Amino acid sequence: MIEARNLSMTFGENKVLDDVSFLFEFGKTNLIIGQSGSGKTVLMKSLVGLLEPDEGEVIYDGRNFCKMGIYERRKLQQEIGMLFQGGALFDSLSVEQNVMFPLNMFTKQSLAEKTERVNFCLERVNLEGRNKLMPSELSGGMIKRVAIARAIALNPKYLFCDEPNSGLDPITSGVIDELIKEITEEFNITTVVNTHDMNSVLMTGEKIAFIHKGKIWWSGTRHEILKTDNEVLNDFIFATELTRRLKR
After folding, report:
1. How far, in Å, CA of 98 to CA of 136, rounded?
2. Chunked in runs of 10, what are the mean pLDDT values of the chain (248 residues)?
3. The pLDDT value given to residue 104
4. Is residue 8 one of the residues assigned to a domain?
5. Own/partner long-range contacts of 126-131 (Cβ < 8 Å, ≥24 apart)
6. I need a labelling partner for 65 at 20 to 30 A (CA). Which of 99, 126, 160, 231 fits?
7. Which domain CATH number covers 40?
8. How far apart are CA 108 and CA 163, in angstroms?
9. Whether 135 and 151 share a structural domain
10. What is the per-residue pLDDT for 239?
11. Total count of domains within the chain
């Protein structure tokens, strides 16, 4: 599990995170939801060490990430898989080379061992045999699936997904949601997803943190979110659903 304890962060006069505490549970798809500018992206970046909080701690299964030295952090970060918004594939590398990239960086495996792992990951995301394709030859959904394959190449204990459905049509979004959910359950990963897609929330939200103005305003499950009397959350749900329908 991953625990955020009293995280606060200020940029200039803007307090982006305000004493945020939340427990992201092992083996579950944990969602961070909220409007643009609510603090959800800063929270995720704080969890993985891309930003340093002004106050508070991040605990990975009893290990205090904020108090680790560079060597300890690097070792823990090998247990983390990251799916970036847009996929963030290397344009000059093939599908196989993209998925193999973290294996080259963090392991001393032989080429045969790395190729076997790449093939397993590509098969898991239903892209077997696509090893030699270049990113320019892939659809948006395929790019996200390659990015997921790369994110799980090191068999991570923790998986972070930043807006995994960004730029995808509803059907492809559903495929990506289901894939993330299946991988979380199959490999017992603690998964944290940053999203504003209500379809994703209702399909995968085993534990949800709704962040508003840098604070956690509500937490619960996908079964509870539609029954809430939290007015700010209800406004967010209505606005998100209306925007989605207007974009159809």
Report:
1. 13
2. 94 91 94 87 92 94 92 90 85 95 91 95 92 93 92 93 85 88 91 88 89 92 86 78 46
3. 93
4. yes
5. 127/95, 130/95, 131/94, 131/95, 131/96
6. 99
7. 3.40.50.300
8. 32
9. yes
10. 65
11. 2
